[in-house]
Amino acid sequence: MEKLILRRVDRQNEEMILNFGPQHPSTHGVINFLVETDGEVLKRATPDVGYLHRSIEKIGELVGYPGFMPYTDRVDYVAAMFANEGYAIAVEKLLKLEVPPRAQWLRAISCELCRIASHLVSVGTMVMDIGAFTPMLHGIRERETINDLIEALCGARLTYNYHRIGGVAFDLPEGWRDKVLAFLDHFDKFLVEYDRLISFNEIYVKRLANVAVIPGPMAVNYGLVGPNLRGSGVDWDVRRDMPYGAYPNFQFKVPVGKGYFGVSGDSFDRYYVRCLEMAESSKIVRQALESLPEGEITAKVPRNIKPEAGEALSRVESARGEMAYYVVSDGTNKAYRVRVRTGSFTAMSVIEDISPGLMVADLVALISSLDVVAPEIDR
Amino acid sequence: MTTRSTHEIHERLLAKFGDAVGPLSEPKIDPFAVVKRERIVEICEFLKTEPGLEFDFLEDLTAIDWPKRNVIEVVYHLLSYTHRHTLVLKVELDRASPSIPTVEGVWKTANWFEREVYDLFGVTFTGHPDLRRIMLPDDWIGHPLLKDYQEAGGWHGISNERENPLVELKRLDDAKRAEAAAAAPQPDPTAKA
After folding, report:
1. Phi then psi for A120, rounded to 5 degrees?
2. Is the pLDDT of residue B1 over 50?
3. Where is A261: in which H helix or E strand?
4. B57-66 and B71-79 as β-strands: parallel, antiparallel, unpaired?
């Protein structure tokens, strides 16, 4: 039997070129992979992106500064808060605007809740891609509560448009703080339960440990950011290392992949870093609610926003890693150039180099462990 | 860990490359330095490997179109994880035939960034291993992020224009109303008031 298989491989009659996607549940959106396989082993997987390209950067040049804010939601609809925040910070930098402390705290609170929601989707769908269905429902159930909380805060469940240039749109509704604290009490217990349910499940661990390893230097070279970078053992978090907004006031740890069950930078590390990050986000929200300052929620922003000519880059630590907005102003009321640098875009570029030698089923693990979101790749 | 200011980094660049590196821009918000096109790879190699600078992360690579000055600027945002400092480099290209050597050999992440700039701005990166369109279909005409880009009116029979849906709804509404009026019993002209 073994000989037979070897001979068939030798004859190379098992080689196929297949389309994996664009409509495939494991590709997390409309992405196509051109997969060259030799039996079950990949020779190469070439990502083909662009199906969701809406030219958001061009739209940014055509609408005014405040008018672009709702479009930023569509850059990354799983974690739209960060896209809002990044753009707001870039324009504030152009306007040399001080954001009131309360607004900064509210930004941190909403972003960290959003990070938890996004990571829940990520770890949930990851487990589902591997083949276990139930944990995904547990994740989505918890995310539902966050969606309800954010809906109470800003009226939207997915495309928030909550952050505005100069601050945030709404103050906390009555009783919201207690609801969040009650949820976090429940959520901290949920994380332990989730680890017991699936994270340390032997089959699940075996399926991910030592699979699709991205070593630290390679991750840096390919520009991986956020949990993907930290999963490879690089200790970098924009919130801690280049602080913005209210983050210098909070105490939190930055989880780094240590090769929990295999080597550092494998799929399990990237997965588990997200689980640990959710606990840290929960801590940040607690601290922020505790120390929430009183005061205004928006700075005095001119009605007609016309920054003087210049350019600014803002970095925020999104759920998918560093998100940067590069805004160039020519002194008119429309941006001359808006550039969005997203984590998913660079994460996709690493797949072609990592894929040779992987099993077909491991490609699914790699894609979901990179946590790519199609609209964020294509913009 | 030493965090160097942009001025210090710029001075080291000047000392090494002389007039290939332009002056630091007025610190409007984020300052940048314009460098010569021919030496961009050399400069990037130096910035990545020189001890004390070590820009290991190419944060962003993009372009800006300036039809008035007849240039396309390619913008490099560099960041060093080791030293936590940043630098912005710009290269000015002729708008008629923009072309620049690739930095893919320095940072792998430049591969996709340069493909994107090629796709949306039409800048050719010489020496790039795989310079194809990335966002748009291969047979797309034009480069959308150029300021003078004109939409070609659709692609393979797929229109990029859509009638206002309200117009269509109104037409349906009017048709329905006319039908109802026609079906309604005519008032009897002989009936007494």
Report:
1. -65, -40
2. no
3. none
4. antiparallel
Contact, A20 vs A33, CB < 8 A? Answer: yes
In eight-state DSSP terms, residue A195 is I
**Whats the size of chain B, residue-wise?**
193
Least confident range of A140-149, A259-268, B110-119: A259-268
**Backbone CA torsion sign across A124, A128, A129, A131:** positive
- The encoded tokens of residue A282 equal 């929960």
User: In 3-state terms, what secondary structure has residue A327?
Assistant: strand
Contact check, Cβ <8 Å, A313/B32: no
Torsion of CA A240, A243, A246, A248, to 10 degrees: 50
- Chain B residues with CB-CB distance to A378 below 8 A: 135
- Whether the CB of A239 is below 8 Å from some CB of chain B: the reply is no
Which domains does chain A carry?
A: 8-378 (1.10.645.10)
Nearest CA in chain B to A31: B135
* B112·A312 Cβ contact <8 A: no
Give me the pLDDT at residue A183, please: 92
Element (H, E) at A93: helix A80-95
Nearest chain B residue to A335 by CA distance is B64
Indicate the domain borders of chain B: 6-151
Q: Annotate B92-157 with DSSP letters as a single string.
A: EEESSS-EEE--TTT-TTHHHHHHHHHHHH--EEET-TT---SSS-TT--S-TTSTT----S-BTT
Q: Round to whole Å and give the CA distance between A282 and A275.
A: 11
The answer to whether residues B48 and B106 touch, using CB atoms and an 8 Å cutoff, is yes
Cβ-Cβ contacts under 8 Å, A218 against chain B: 108
At CA B136, angle to CA B135 and CA B139, rounded to 5? 145
d(CA A32, CA A355): 14
Multiple choice CATH, B6-151, 3.30.428.10, 3.40.50.2300, 3.90.105.10, 3.30.460.80:
3.30.460.80
**pLDDT of B52 strictly over 80:** no
Mark yes or no for CB contact A348/B112 under 8 Å: yes
Chain B residues with CB inside 8 Å of A345's CB?
A: 112, 116
For residue B149, give how far its alpha carbon lies from the nearest alpha carbon of chain A (Å). Answer: 11
- Touching check for B151 and chain A: CB below 8 Å? no
Q: From the CA atom positions of chain B, what is the Rg in Å?
A: 28
State the complex-level ipTM: 0.84
Interface of B with A in 48-107 (CB under 8 A): 56-60, 62, 64-65, 75, 77, 81, 84, 88, 107
Q: Which of B30, B56, B144 sits opposite A220 (nearest CB)?
A: B56
Q: Does B41 touch chain A (CB under 8 A)?
A: no
pLDDT, one tens digit per residue, over A131-153 is: 888 888 998 998 999 999 999 98
Interface with chain B: mutation pick from A61, A95, A326, highest number of B CBs within 10 Å: A326
Interior CA angle at A86 toward A228 and B73, to 5°? 90
